[in-house]
Amino acid sequence: MSAAQADMSLKPSPPRRAVLRWARHRGTLIAIAAFLVCLGLIRLVSGSLNYYDISTIATGGATLATAAIGQTVVVLSGGFDLSAAAVISLVNVTLASHMQDDPSSILLWSCAGIAIGAAAGAFNGFFIAFLRLQPIVVTLATMFILQGVTLLVMDKPGGQLPAGFSAFFTADVIPDWLPGPVLMLVLLVLGWLLLKNTIFGKAIYAIGSDRDAARAAGLDTRLCEFFVYVLAGGLYGLAGVFISAQTGSGDPLVGNPMLLQMFAAVVVGGTLLGGGRGGPVGTIFGAYVLMMVVNILLVLNVPAFYSSVVEGTILILAVLGASITRTSVLASTLRLGGHRLSAWRQGRLPRQLTLPETRLRLPDEPARAARSQVARPSFWIRRQEDLRTVLPAFACFAIVLVVSQFVLGSTLLSWGYYNSLIVLASFLAILALGQGSVILTGGLDLSLPWTIAFCGIVSAGLMKGSDSAMLYALPLALGIGTFIGLMNGLGIVALGLSPIVMTLAMNGILQGFALVYSGGTPDGFSAPGLRWIMTGQVMGVTPIVPLVILFVLVATILLGRTAFGRRVYAIGNGMRAAELSGVPVGATLVKVYMLSGFCAALVGCLLAGFSGQASLGMGDDYLLPSIAVAVVGGTLITGGRGRYIGMIGGVLLLTALQTLLAGTTLPYATRAILYGVVVLCAVITLREKNT
């Protein structure tokens, strides 16, 4: 065979090349097809589809499409960015507060909005690329920091943007032919196509496919990853500029609903979570598909409260659809279920067989005696690592107590202060068990905020101020929380979904359920008995205080002295090694998320009892603190190391800091900034073990 023939034999045949091209662009083509179907449905239900309708659709989805392009770039590199929505809100309020009705001011602040986003991306990129911190934790901390800064700039909706600024971004470029948002997206696509063929563009895909291989090939992966977050931040900033032009005013919460939508648009557009496959073109169509699906539901008189339910469901289904293969977790789960069913029918399951009892043979008496004579290391040596990670939180807590004595007075020797401190810390102490257990396995539970809110709303709505109703309202609410955790666990274990994706989608679904259940206005009041537990006094002690102390003791034993706790640590140190060691990994993970859901539901009920009633968004303030107390208490964010008693140190520290801040003149928004900074500092301190 000649060299030319050999070269020809190595090339795939034309049908094979067609299949490869289809596989490479399958996600984008499916997103385009779904977009066309949605357009057809809009034409069907509305009776017309003229230029005005198309222009309205183009303007309505441009902000989400632009932000989702930035998220796509991050996901292609194997990352995850939870700070995107916060960047949009910060840019929006900054422009609404400073832009003047002058061409130079409009140009200056439009560029400044993009620069703000790029700066936030550089902040993320520095910690992720150069300090090798986890993208999820860094961007989550950045999200809270930016939310605090946003509230400092503008704490409520207001401001007004020039009409010329709005017209520049939203008006037609060619009247009745080309809407401005379409031109903006076309330019972004052209820019991406040019970037994709550069070394940087190819490096993005290489890093997302295999970071070690990319590094071995000579790519500067750290510098590339840094600029990925800078580029994404700039796109978030552009999205913030556009939504400012679209709304004409400022709103510190304007970007919050977009976080779930971004990831849904990325996945619907065919980009693979984990990196290496996909692109912004499919993402743009995915963003418009999401927007049009919600609009179609509104036309069909489906309440807007269901929008987040639809978006969360679409995210889960899209991730499932993109990952279904013969070797996927779902396929393996179905095959295993079929094998177990067949074995059960044939009576071949281990529990159906009568097998001889076998026991491990213990060493004989002389060997045991010899081993007992070997001197055991002292307690301090055996617990050296635990003490190194646990004690700093308690030491910092003591420092905060001293500072509080000087600032507030009457704290160090005041039982009233400690009683109030424990009451306020009770919520985080309970969440620390659930979220801490999830973190110990290497995951995160982002569904806590609306699990807390939904269960609190349900419990208060059923109690309606009745102690007798509390007897069934509390168990039902706790059961709902446990069921939510069960769904999270099954989605992660049986369907193979990422914990971040599954719990983020569940959080959106629960938000919709809470709005539907309450009609947008929660009613009902907590039972007097529950309120007494949270706010009453018996000889100067609030009843919840001894209950929290008992909870801490039980939780410490659960994670430190039981088989369940040992399995949690084993999974965090290596899931595959745990499986080979006989640990029931799947069942343990499901139980961990059920525990997290139970703890979140319990906090929801107690919060309703503390304030007397439940409210929408009552759990929003507890997501980052639930992670912060674990990290500050010495728990590795990647799992496998940490103690519950250390988490309690983190709980006391953050609660004391919160109490100290409440006694000063600092704005409320500084709390979110403080939590974000504390988390980053704690993770940086532990980075030697984390990388």
Compact summary:
Strand 1 and strand 2 form a beta hairpin. The protein is built from 32 helices and two strands. The protein has 691 residues and is mostly helical.
What would your notes on this structure say?
There is one protein chain. This protein is mainly alpha-helical and 691 residues long. It is 73% helix and 1% strand. The protein has helices spanning 3-10, 14-24, 26-46, 51-76, 84-98, 103-130, 135-153, 163-170, 180-196, 199-209, 211-216, 221-247, 258-268, 280-299, 307-323, 329-345, 365-372, 379-382, 384-407, 415-440, 448-463, 467-493, 499-518, 528-535, 544-561, 563-573, 575-580, 585-611, 623-632, 644-662, 670-685, 687-690, and strands at residues 172-174, 178-179. It has a two-stranded antiparallel sheet with strand order 1-2. Helix 19 packs parallel to helix 30, helix 24 packs across helix 28 and helix 26 packs across helix 28. The two termini are 51 Å apart. The mean pLDDT is 85. It comes from Labrys neptuniae. Pfam families: BPD_transp_2. It is found in: Cell membrane.
